[in-house]
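yo

u said u wanted the structure for the complex thing, so here. seqs first:
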Amino acid sequence: KQEVTQIPAALSVPEGENLVLNCSFTDSAIYNLQWFRQDPGKGLTSLLLIQSSQREQTSGRLNASLDKSSGRSTLYIAASQPGDSATYLCAVLGGNFGNEKLTFGTGTRLTIIP
Amino acid sequence: DAGVTQSPTHLIKTRGQQVTLRCSPKSGHDTVSWYQQALGQGPQFIFQYYEEEERQRGNFPDRFSGHQFPNYSSELNVNALLLGDSALYLCASSLMVTAEAFFGQGTRLTVV
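structre next:
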């Protein structure tokens, strides 16, 4: 059974700092890994998708890496801004068919202090 | 492109009632999945629909059922509501080939 863990559960940093969010998963047989952002009471916004054959993806100030063999991914946020405050969720895609079920961590709640 | 749209946004039901939630996928997507998110938790997989068939199901009772229509839109039905069914219900759509999931804004269901 796939299990996803995110550390830390909560993080507060001053504006302008660079930061790293961590995600680990127990089963390396994944189809892809996605990082999402969720604002309170809202849906999920996809930030980055890394296919199982890739090592990293970048979008603007965000960079995500994937080490499938060790079951780890990191999300790097450069030059943090107050608008980055949200919960960040990591999810791995797998399942019996290989690509039907996302398994999520419980998220990291990020607060950027102006 | 309207993205994934869900209706209604909020719903209050009484224990024992039945509820239907609706989802329209992102334009061009052929696969719809449903997730339940309790407060402070990550979303949990309910089931996935592809070509109007339930392709895979998570660890949810038979009270949870669904449907996918020929236009790829989908419904989630929950019978005999329990207080514990109170949650944010999220719909995600994707293309079977690429499998990148896009989520709607969710339906907040409160059972009283």
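Chain A touches chain B at residues 4, 31-32, 34, 36, 41-46, 49, 89, 91, 93, 95-97, 99-107 (CB under 8 Å). The mean pLDDT of chain A is 94.
cya
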